[in-house]
Fold this protein.
Amino acid sequence: MFKKIFFSRYFHLCLAILTLYGVTWYITYTTEFEKIMNRFRRYCYADYEVRASKTSMMRLKAAFTRDQFAEQLRSFSADLFDYHNKEQVQAYFSSWNFFYDVSKTDEGNSYLLAPIINSGQYEAHIPETVAFRYAILGEEEITPFSVYQEGPWTSVFVSEKNGTVYIHTATLDSLLRWCFALLWKLEPRTQKDFDINDATHYLYLDLPAVCQEVFIERRFYDKETSREYFLEKAFQSLLPTMFAMGARMMADKETSFSARYKYERAYLTGLAAYPQHTLFNYLATYGLCNTLTRSLAVAVHTQISISIMGTQEINVDIISQTAQRILAERQDSALRDLIEDRRELPDFCHR
Amino acid sequence: MFIPVGTNLKLKKVPYATIGLLLINWLVYAFTQGIYYKTEFLIWRYFYLQPGEAYPWQLITSMFFHGSFWHLFGNSVYLWIFGIYVEDKVGWKQYLFLYFLTGIAAGLIHSTMTGLFMRDKLMIPMLGASGAISGIMGVYLYRCYYSKIRLLLFFVLPIKIPAVIVLGFWFLQDFLGGIAAIKGIHQNVAFWAHVGGFLSGLATSKYLKYEGQAQREKLEHTVSTRLGKREGYAEGMMAAELLLQTDANNSQLHLKMAQAKSGMGGSNEGKEHYQQAIKLMLDTDREKVAEVFVEYWKKYLTIMEPQYQLRVSRLLARSGNTSLACATLNALINSDYPPDPSMEAAYLDLAKLYEQELQQYDLARAVYHQYMKKFPQTEQRAFVENRLRLMQGDTRL
């Protein structure tokens, strides 16, 4: 009987499945950190769902799901941290080289969790010299509520927290990837071919050398390699602007300015220091970026248009001067108060 | 662009196992519609397959849940089209074994590929019977590779395409989908479960040595579709001859070859196949012998060897075809075959038929006399003399 079973081909097949199960178990083994990360992400997004729910039934369902994930999270992280305690969560994730922040408002919580892919010290001249610590954040594991609701391009480029400037690569990355996919397909041959839309137009103005190399000369025939090269070069080219923005934020750190106003000042500083980076202005003006700087960018655009009325041509000096002038004007407290009163503060957790 | 609607194979049995599986899937789907949200969450957590945190039973339970009506409908169509034939060929027990085995393998391969190349998706649950159905499709391809799939092109135009092409294309499509998933192009389909299920179906079929039966079925299929038709006659004949090499005692095959070879007029080969078919049928399918012999007799008007002819004639007589029985027995006793017990019995049978069935006493007497002349030492002498005496008396009366 046993011999018959042992030599049966069906028995062999069952053994093969058991072996495959073992291999799969080994490959799909998830660490404690992966489990915590997953539950934490699910918990945060379920919390967003509760916040975004339109009906009481939806809210009830989302709240139940959130509580289930909270329960699972609690069981996984029992000895490590209390997920309600921001400092403990921050300490846990920073030990894994992750940046974590939570903003609690009456409307609900907004979370941010992203890996720190690079960090260091930087000195920027805006024109005063500001030295600061920075950390470059990779693709976010948990995006803020505003980004969750409105999409990746509503995020910010730079934020400041506890004396460190955080550069958010994901904000720029999504736009650059979109531009790349479009341009790679359309195969532009000249500068004029980049006038497909405003984003690609400004992309060429900002990064002519990279665009020339990647899209016109086709330095790499492989799409993957080209994309990686393009993203890296574009990011490196636009990084100084983000550093200038970060420097301004750092300089304004001790002031009593609101988060909104601080970000506006950072944006104007970036534009004044690197006026050739029109893509940023475009992002802010046409709503691809967060709504925060949109109206301000329109103001910049209008003032530049007024400046060049007559025989003058638009150039980087005019952009820079205009940006500086607006920055100076807005330091006037009355005007600042007006700006702050008129606009509500958005969900902006990573300030 | 196209959907499969059937195959050119013929079903021999009712596919109870496939019907059962479909029924369970649809019942589970019906019961989970509008379910209480707390139960829904528990199903999601404990019954769907989450590669990163899988419970072993999820490999099976996930097969019975579907995300939407169209998800289930699509799977049902494929399971019905391919599953019923696989069940028909391998039997319901093996079929269910293959269904669950390949379904589990599909889930494991999906999990493995996710773990190797898409770790960020380890916690995304998988559900649906498509892995197991892909496995059955793999078995189908191995087992019925000679068949053709009926498709509806653009959902209206019916066409027939060889199974190898249809399933090969289907596999390629899933494989490329899997590559795209690895490259990060998000699609809401577990392509690697399909690929894994399909390959495990093929591998299992190979291990269970289905190729012998498959080749045999292919030959049988060729014989049944080509033999007897002008187009593909040679192919059908070749297939039949190959089949006879492995199964010389297949009476149906001999009969088909006989019919095919006698289609354009008689031939020695046709005659031999008829005779062989009749000989084999005498032991296996006595009901049909008389019918086949009538067909043979009309074409060749020749009797068979005495021992077989005697049995056939008796069957003819029993089936009410007395005149043909008499004709064949007459031919037998007048043939050149050497006298033997069958021949002896043939005389007696013929005489009895004349005497008892046809009441042709003169002919009966003539046969009895002939018999006595040919077999003077027969043990039946007393019986024959008695019959002759009785018939004389009858005549007098």
About this structure: Residues 2-209 of chain B form a domain with the Rhomboid-like fold fold (CATH 1.20.1540.10). Residues 92-117 of chain B form the longest helix (26 residues). Chain B touches chain A at residues 37-38, 41, 45, 51-54, 56, 97, 101, 104-105, 108-109, 111-112, 114-116, 119, 122-123, 204, 207-208 (CB under 8 Å).
